[in-house]
Amino acid sequence: RGSGSLPTVSKVDTEVMESIIAEGFRVRELVFESNLYEIVLPPQTITEDNANEIDRKLKKLLPIKENILWLSLKNNHLNDNHLKDLGAMVNLRKLDIDNNAISDIGIVELVNIPNLEGLNLFRTKVTKKSLSSFSRMISLKRVYISGTLISKNDVALYLEREERPNLGIGI
After folding, report:
1. Is the pTM of this model over 0.90?
2. How many angstroms separate the CA atoms of 153 and 161, rounded?
3. Which of 75, 71, 28, 72 lies closest to 51, judged by CA?
4. Per-residue pLDDT tens digits for 55-80
């Protein structure tokens, strides 16, 4: 699949969608009657006081895992374990998980998402070890790593060796 073609997916059951919205997610259909969605959990929906709720919220997304094209979970107390569920979202193209306690271990969970094109890791705990994971993300075009433990020098050395010159790394 090229980035210009959209996957064909099943219609989402109304009750399932209502339960996702009831969990606090904002839902927007990206193309009329495509059944493909942008899902946003507003920043700081999850705080230290209710951090145990993130697992339940993410499980609510699993019935529509093929329908999610864009997902934003920024600043919601995500950790590496939460990224396992995201790995099942085969049509995911854009993932925004900035301002969370994500490390190199969690990034490995995202490697097999076949259509992931954009990844925002601003202010996460990833290091230069994640650079090799980015190389294995076959569709990845852009990754934002400002505010992480990856230095400009790490990026320069990586790009010197990297065989995917179309991968844009924002630092």
Report:
1. yes
2. 13
3. 75
4. 999 999 999 999 999 999 999 999 99
